[in-house]
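The record is passed on directly below:
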Amino acid sequence: MRLFIPLIIQRTLLGLLLCAYCGDLSAQQASGSNPFMAPSPYSGRQESQSLQPASQAQVYLEQQYSNQQQKRVQLGSPLHQTDPGWKQDLTQSLPPLYSQNRAQTRRGQSGSIRQVGATQTDYPSAFEAFSDDQEYPELETRSVSEEDYAESIDELCGGNCWGWTVLPTDLLYTSYLAGPKEPRMGLAVLNEKDIGWQMELEAGARVGILRYGTMDDDNVLAGWQLDIEGAGPPRLNIEEDLDLDAADFRVGVPLTWRQGAYQAKFAYYHTSAHVGDEYLKRHPGFQRINYVRDAFVLGGGYFVDPDLRLYAEIGYAFNTDGGAKPWELQFGAEFSPAEHSGIYGAPFWAINGYLREEVNWGGNVNFMFGWQWRGDRNNHLLRIGFQYLDGKTMQYSFYQNSERMVGFGTWYDF
């Protein structure tokens, strides 16, 4: 028993000494300059690759590396424990970079190789070389068509850019929908209580010649515009095998203006009346007149909303003949939806009053209503509907006659 106790004490002391010795070894290893490096999982791959013969590029880089290297980089050594110039030593030990002007080489010129320092932060010559390379069109100046340029300008201006437009598509001051003497294409079959069924044709148009104003007709119509107009509305007598009873011819040059809801017109027009040969044969005692008007017109319009317009104009004829007198007055209102409604169309109505000095300030009232279709790419207007006219005739060869005509028709306004 006495021997067993000292033996236990000896073994305990021996164990403590061994633990202290092991702890000292681990502390020395942690504070050493060469920390423990775990084996790389790619060591086997690197050894297998080292057995393969080196390529010419690898040999060249190794030669450059051995010539340029001043101090080897010790793998596994923390950089912060090296001398203060470790950054410079490290960059000097790296192999140099090389850049070549590929654009010049592809064009058949001699390519120049320039050495670039490892500490250089930008490489202007290397990147500027690609600006003229045909394989990199995104780095070159792309040509823009005039159509794309115009569209981009319109987007920037929001449709409010002003400029010159030759042959503009739309009109700034459209013709009055119920005006009996407005230039348009039309055909109406009307019945008059005394002369029976008549066919009133309208063969004419009004188009723009030159505009200084907005260039995007889809968004805003504004500016100054010069138009021309012409029409020859004949009357065919259905009761007499479509004989030509009369025709009035009109030509004019309107200068129009529009800004927002307001519009104005200053125009010159010439009109003359002619009786048909068939009518003269049927009425040998009819006294033919040479009705002529050369007049200036000043008019204005106001859009209560985009679909409803109120208008009025006054005209003075400086040259008259055949019973015509200088002054005339025209006014009215019309409802015509401005939105493009496609194939479905939309309703319309219009009323127009026309007073003339030559008939003691009498005249006529023309009322229309029906359905309309507006162009998808322009403001051309196609209408079908009913017409009622009461008052003095629309044919100036019979300007003193009164008529009451009712019927239907179709009309097309440019």
Summary: The first helix runs from residue 4 to 30.
